[in-house]
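User: Sequence recovery, please. Input:
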C-alpha cells in the first residue's frame, strides 16, 4: 500500500513538474516575442522592421513568403556618401537636413527639390543620368557607402552587380505601406543611416500627433461628403480600392469614399459607365491626375463633364507643387508629411475646421 502511494506520488509530482516547465517555457517565449517587437523602431510601418543589435542595425523587409534581412554595420554609420534611385529618398533626407549625404542621383528630371537641383547645378557630377540606362562602372567609381533603391525584379541583376562590388544595397519600399503614417515612418530608416535618429523620432512624433489631431477633428463633423478619385485613362478608370492608401486618407479626412466597401488594396479597373453610375452625384472628385484645369479634365475624356463635381468645380488634383519638368513634391515632401496631406484633405471636405488654411499639395481646378 505504501509502495503504491509512493509510486503515485512520484508520478503526480513528475507530471506537475513537467507541466510547470512547459508553462514556464511558454511564458518565456511570449516575453521574448514581446521584447523583440518592442525593439522594432517601426510602430506603424508594417512592411519593414528595424532592430538595433550589438554591432549592427538589422533591417528586415517583409516579403510575401519570407523576410529579407540587411545588416547595417554600426561602425559604418553615419553614411556620408549615398547614391539614391528614387525621388522619395530626397524627401526623407531633406526633411532631416541630410541632402549633403547624397553623392549621386538618377532621373534627376523627376526630382522636385529646388535645394537638390541647386546642388546638381553646383556639382554636375551628382547627376548620374537615367536609371533605365544605369552605368554600373560609373556608380561603382563613386564608391558609395550605400545605394538606396527599391524592390524591382527588372533591377535584380543591377543590384547583384553592385552587391558583388561590395556596395551596401538598401531597399526602401515605402510605397508598400498601407497607411500614410506607416509611409511617413520611413524617416526613421534615414535617421539611422545618417546619424540623425533622434531628430527623425522627434519629427515623426510631430507628424503622428498632428495627423491624429486632424483626423479626430474631421471625424467629429456630422457631414460626410461623398468622394471618388482618379480619371479615365484610355478605356479604363483605375479607381483606388477601399483598402488602398488613398482611401485611408479620404476616410481619415471625414469623407464618404464611394468605393470604401471594396476590399482591394490597389486599384479597381472600371469602365466609365460603372463609375458614372455610382459617382454621378458625388460631392468631390479627388486626385484627378496631375491636370491643372477643368478644361484639361474635359479634353482628357469627353464625358468627364457629366459629373456633378465637375459642374460644381469641386475637382482637385495633387498638382500644387510641380515644377516645369513635371516633378511633383507630393512624392517627396508628401511621403514624409502625411499630416500636411491630411490637413489639405480636411480643409477640402470640411473647410470650417481650418478656415484660414491654404492648400499645400492639392490644387482646386478652375476653368
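Assistant: Recovered sequence (367 residues):
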Amino acid at each position: 500500500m505504501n509502495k503504491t502511494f509512493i509510486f503515485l506520488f512520484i508520478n503526480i509530482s513528475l507530471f506537475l513538474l513537467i507541466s510547470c516547465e512547459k508553462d514556464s517555457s511558454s511564458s518565456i517565449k511570449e516575453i521574448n516575442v514581446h521584447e523583440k517587437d518592442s525593439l522594432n523602431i517601426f510602430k506603424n510601418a508594417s512592411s519593414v522592421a528595424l532592430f538595433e543589435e550589438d554591432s549592427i542595425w538589422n533591417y528586415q523587409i517583409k516579403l510575401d513568403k519570407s523576410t529579407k534581412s540587411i545588416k547595417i554595420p554600426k561602425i559604418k554609420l553615419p553614411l556620408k556618401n549615398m547614391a539614391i534611385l528614387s525621388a522619395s529618398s530626397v524627401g526623407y533626407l531633406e526633411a532631416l537636413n541630410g541632402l549633403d549625404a547624397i553623392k549621386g542621383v538618377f532621373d534627376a528630371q523627376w526630382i522636385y527639390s529646388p535645394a537638390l537641383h541647386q546642388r546638381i547645378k553646383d556639382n554636375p557630377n551628382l547627376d548620374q543620368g537615367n536609371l533605365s540606362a544605369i552605368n554600373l562602372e560609373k556608380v561603382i567609381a563613386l564608391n558609395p557607402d550605400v545605394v538606396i533603391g527599391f524592390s524591382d525584379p527588372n533591377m535584380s541583376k543591377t543590384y547583384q552587380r553592385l552587391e558583388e562590388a561590395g556596395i551596401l544595397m538598401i531597399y526602401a519600399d515605402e510605397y508598400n505601406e498601407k497607411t500614410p503614417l506607416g509611409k511617413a515612418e520611413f524617416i526613421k530608416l534615414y535617421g539611422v543611416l545618417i546619424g540623425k535618429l533622434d531628430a527623425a523620432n522627434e519629427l515623426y512624433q510631430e507628424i503622428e500627433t498632428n495627423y491624429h489631431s486632424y483626423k479626430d477633428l474631421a471625424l467629429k463633423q456630422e457631414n460626410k461628403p461623398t468622394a471618388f478619385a482618379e480619371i479615365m485613362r484610355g478605356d479604363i478608370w483605375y479607381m483606388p480600392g477601399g483598402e488602398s492608401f488613398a482611401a485611408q486618407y479620404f476616410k481619415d479626412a471625414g469623407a464618404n469614399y464611394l468605393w470604401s466597401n471594396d476590399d482591394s488594396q490597389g486599384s479597381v479597373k472600371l469602365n466609365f459607365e460603372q463609375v458614372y453610375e455610382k459617382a454621378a452625384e458625388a460631392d468631390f472628385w479627388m486626385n484627378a491626375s496631375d491636370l491643372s484645369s477643368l478644361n484639361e479634365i474635359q479634353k482628357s475624356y469627353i464625358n468627364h463633364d457629366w459629373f456633378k463635381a465637375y459642374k460644381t468645380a469641386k475637382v482637385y488634383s495633387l498638382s500644387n507643387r510641380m515644377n516645369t519638368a513635371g516633378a511633383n513634391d507630393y512624392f517627396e515632401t508628401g511621403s514624409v508629411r502625411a499630416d500636411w496631406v491630411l490637413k489639405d484633405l480636411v480643409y477640402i471636405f470640411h473647410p470650417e475646421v481650418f478656415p484660414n488654411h491654404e492648400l499645400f499639395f492639392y490644387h482646386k481646378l478652375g476653368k
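The longest helix spans residues 2-39.
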